[in-house]
Amino acid sequence: MPSKIFGVDLRLPQPQNERPGKTTSSATNSPASSRRGLKLGSSDKKNKERSLSKDRKIGPSQLSPSIQPKSVKLGMYMESPPTLFIGAPSQSSGVLMSGRLQVTPNVPEATLNSVTMYLECTTTTKRPVSDRCRECQTQINDLYEWHFFTQPKTFKAQNGMQELPFSHLIPGHLPATTHGQIGSLDYSLHVKAKAADGQEIEFRRELKFQRALLPGNEKNSVRIFPPTTLALHVTLPSVIHPIGEFPIQCRMTGITTQKGNDTARWRLRKLLWRIEEFESMVSPACSKHASKVGGEGKGISHENTREVGMDELKQGWKTDFDGEGSIEGEFNAAIDASAKPQCDVNAQNGLRISHTLIIELVIAEEWATGKKPGAATPTGAARVLRTQFNLNVTERAGMGLSWDDEQPPMYEDVPVSPPHYQGEHTTMTDYEGDDLHEDVEHLVLTP
Ligand SMILES: [Zn+2]
């Protein structure tokens, strides 16, 4: 059966509403592991066989009513809760998965020569090296396999449904199920039963693997904006989640500068935050299309950046011009759940997703004379201070398990103190918007 006839239909469903994002691509050497997937991967030949078996699954025999019904019906009952890895890949001890494969005869006596089940990891790229080539688009790796019996086994209809138990410790280093803008990682249990009459009966159950990093101490950062004396102190949670708000505490110091009897000071007029999701992946080439990328073991690197949350604030902080002066405030930020945000992932096959919080402060300069320190005049100068922070986006620990947010931080999470100063990651530019000066005369200055 020519596999290409059905190739297009086998693509994983694609999100209907892709958000616009910046995208770059470049040819590169793919990491050696990207072709082998998760190291436990199967050979190319095996992938091909598996692909053919998938073709059969939706082949003509199922598109038109089959004369010969399947001798058994396969089903599955999962006993274990959904797989949630706790902790980083290097630390997680894994999760026990267990269930029962259910075999229901459709005929008085159904003899199966073998029943094999594979724990599969499917890596899909939306940017295959060769368009419409399924081998370039999808790699399937077997992580584990079960052989339920070695001798042919007969299932009798009079005994009804019979169950074949299975269990496995899912290793904690595996990347979680991920559906990115470029790449996807999916897990499934794929059952293949071979009947004595030559029939092959298949069954597939999707699995969702998730990871939760335990919350640790808050992260304190200080960003400076040379050549000014401005310093921004930011406190963020150690982990945040795809759903739900998180607090950002900000304190800016050094806003007041004495110049003789007069004072120059910065007033915060606007605060913008936004969260960016960065994804990168190396799309491997199948052996047939390896020449397109310059040989075996190479691929094409793709990157995508998109915004998954933002807001603009014009109030909500308090200003103190005394001494060197300070501005202080706390506000909530959140990832936009409708953007279908993904958790951070760093898979051996080259799929990486990370998140960045960008904060922009628009500050306007004022001048107060020694005679009237309470009355200030805007100088017209405005600046944009821009800085960014890494966010750890992870699932909540505590879904169906005894873990909760009160879990004491692990030793590794305790930050070194005091927080170190970082002069990098910041920029200061002139503000070019004109919305700052409209209401400037209504400013209420703290004495
Ligand atoms: Zn190909």
TrEMBL record:
Coiled coil: none
Bias kind Low complexity: ranges: 23-34
Region (Disordered): 1-71
Residues annotated as domain LDB19 N-terminal: 116-293
Compositional bias per record (Basic and acidic residues), positions renumbered to this chain: 42-58
Entry protein name: Endocytosis regulator
Organism: Saxophila tyrrhenica
Any matching Pfam family: LDB19
